[in-house]
Amino acid sequence: MYAVPFNPQDPMNTPRGLNTGDPAIRAAILQSFGNAINVFQTAGVAMNSTLGSLQFVTLNGQRMHRPGVVFHLVAKVGARWKRDSGAKS
């Protein structure tokens, strides 16, 4: 999958890059991107959303920005996944 495989002598810089020269890997990457787009679209998240518009929590009815937190996004995507897949909470 990676253009440069893991090297225990260089763990900070490996693995890296995608091996897009391999048609099977390229197809798997495109399929994964397509799946990710479908997840976001199904959850009602616009592809041009800013991260700041997704990083918030609601406490006592008030929306509070929380950098580094995507509770709102996780709740939307997770709820849809559970409903569609039959997974239990």
Q: Quick one: biggest sheet?
A: 2 strands, antiparallel
Mean pLDDT: 79
Strand content: 15-25%
Can you tell me the residue ranges where pLDDT is under 50 for at least 5 consecutive residues?
81-89
Strand order, main sheet: write it out.
Answer: 1-2
SSE run: EEHHEEH
When the domains are counted, the total is 2
Terminus-to-terminus distance: 33 Å
Using DSSP, what is the number of strands?
4
Helical residues, percent: 40-55%
Question: Shape from CA axes?
Answer: flat
Count of helical stretches: 3
Radius of gyration computed on alpha carbons = 18 Å
What is the SS-derived class?
Answer: alpha+beta
Summarize the structure.
The chain is of the alpha+beta class. It has helices at residues 23-42, 51-54, 71-85; strands at 2-4, 16-18, 56-59, 62-65.
Tell me about this structure.
The chain is an alpha+beta fold and 89 residues long. The protein has two domains: 42 residues, no CATH class; 44 residues, no CATH class. It is 44% helix and 16% strand. The strands form two sheets. A two-stranded antiparallel sheet has the order 1-2. The chain has a two-stranded antiparallel ribbon with strand order 3-4. A hairpin with a 2-residue loop joins strand 3 and strand 4. The longest helix has 20 residues. The chain is flat, with a radius of gyration of 18 Å.
Key features of this structure:
89 residues, alpha+beta, 2 domains, two-stranded antiparallel ribbon, two-stranded antiparallel sheet, 44% helix, 16% strand, flat
What is the strand and helix layout of this fold?
Layout: E1 2-4, E2 16-18, H1 23-42, H2 51-54, E3 56-59, E4 62-65, H3 71-85
Antiparallel strand pairs: 1-2, 3-4
